[in-house]
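User: My instructor asked us to take a sequence, write out its structure as tokens, and then describe one feature of it. I'm not sure where to start. Here is the sequence I was given:
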Amino acid sequence: MEFRRIRADLHIHTCLSPCGELAMSPRAVVDRARAAGLDLIAVTDHNTTENAAAVIEAARGTELAVLPGIELTTAEEVHILGLFDPATDLGPFQAAVYRNLPDVPSKKKFVKDQVLVDAEDYVIGFSPRCLFGATLFSVHDAVGLIHGHGGLAIACHVDRESFSIVSQLGFIPPGLALEAVEVSPRLTVAEAREALGPFDPFPMVRFSDAHQPEEIGRAVTDFLVASPNLDEIRKALAGEDGRRIIPS
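Assistant: Let's start with the prediction itself. The structure tokens for your sequence are:
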């Protein structure tokens, strides 16, 4: 089997995230990702997957692969990335998230409009609840929920002073079955290892956490895989069957 090097940014928000810019429409995300030379991206809005299908559709016919995902906020206010296969029916997953996300009206939290759009960038609605709040899931339950729907779980921006597993808990709980930990764009992986430790046995990745188009691709991870899909990324993170992370 022939492998190739792909560039991936697997932490990107759209205009549905309460902190995402309106400019983060599906076509804008796809256009910017392609201009940045990316092969694979993931749509990871706060506590919702509802704009992911539009970005996947907007990328259809291009060489850019798109994974649906989520940035899930746990009860401890830890942010966990969930990455899924595009063929997965995420309706039951999203329903579970909403059942465990306090139904606070969005305007009560003074957030921006949380815009639902289609693949042509037409507005089709607005999320009425604040998506930025903490769910009722513990860290362990959040990872279990993601895995239960076939996803990968990655601890977000572990070097940040808020909303990271380090800032909120001070450590990674024993037995937490993460696939990786993510470093924010402010540090390289080497700098994060020096500042925080190696996080063994979890591999370290680096993504943009983009909220504006120009931020897409500002931090990426290169993988050696057969193709840009979830199963290949899973194997690369585990170092299986010749797949691997390529050090930057």
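For the description part of your assignment, you could build on this observation: The mean pLDDT is 94. Try explaining in your own words what that tells you about the chain.
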